[in-house]
UniProtKB/TrEMBL annotation:
It catalyses: (7R,8S)-7,8-diammoniononanoate + CO2 + ATP = (4R,5S)-dethiobiotin + ADP + phosphate + 3 H(+). NCBIfam families: bioD. GO terms for cellular component: cytosol. It comes from Cesiribacter andamanensis AMV16. ATP binds at D12, S13, G14, K15, T16, L17, D41, E95, G96, A97, G98, P186, H187, L188. This is ATP-dependent dethiobiotin synthetase BioD. Mg(2+) binds at T16, D41, E95. GO terms for biological process: biotin biosynthetic process. It is found in: Cytoplasm. It comes from the Bacteria. Homodimer. The gene is bioD1.
Length: 201
């Protein structure tokens, strides 16, 4: 099975929560190749899914910034070719850093990791004023590059009009809508994971 690469229309869109739900739905393992800043997203995965196997980051950078800037601050050179998938026979969920065109270096972007890992994209779109434009720009980039997309997950206060027009133009399969919650209980997580499991078939 191809690994899933979780990316988003921007930063703080909900990639870590979606990654946790994918891991729970599929019994998959989790890997974030590049972590910038603390707390680490892997810690959130462990909190939400204590049973999930979490692979160590290839790069753990202290500065909460774009990977290229965080790496430069520590004298590190990021290169997609240096990143190798962790050894596993299980399904794998890979979480990107920030949005798709966040730079790794002067040549490569986060989204360049998709073909490098032979992955299939799960796109996260959080809903806010302007998110239609950002989502359709993300769709155009994925389409131009011909990357395989498993589907889209909406995150935030429901907005049926926004969802409908995004699905109309992209043709993506809607995998899930995650509402805003004061607290994500185990019961809620399992409900979302069950829906996701069904949608992924």
């Amino acid at each position: 099975m191809r690994p899933y690469f979780v990316t988003a229309i921007g930063t703080d869109s909900g990639k870590t929560l979606v990654s946790a739900l994918l891991c729970r739905a599929l019994g998959a393992e989790y890997w974030k190749p590049i972590q910038c800043g603390i707390p680490a997203d892997a810690a959130t995965i462990r909190q939400l899914n204590p049973q999930t196997r979490v692979h160590p980051e290839a790069y753990f950078l202290q500065l909460p910034a774009s990977p290229h800037a965080a790496a430069r601050a520590e004298g590190v050179q990021l290169d997609a070719r240096s990143l190798q998938l962790p050894a596993t026979d299980a399904s794998l969920v890979i979480e990107g850093a920030g949005g798709m065109l966040v730079p790794l270096n002067d040549r490569e972007f986060i989204i360049d990791l998709v073909p490098h890992f032979g992955a299939e994209v799960v796109l996260v779109a959080n809903l806010y004023l302007g998110s239609i434009n950002h989502t359709l720009l993300s769709w155009q980039l994925l389409q131009q590059r011909g990357y395989p997309v498993r589907g889209i997950i909406f995150n935030g206060t429901p907005n049926p009009e926004s969802e409908q027009i995004i699905l109309h133009h992209t043709g993506y399969k809607k995998l899930l809508s995650i509402d805003q919650h004061e607290q994500l209980t185990p019961h809620l997580l399992e409900q979302y994971a069950a829906t996701l499991r069904t949608q992924l078939g």
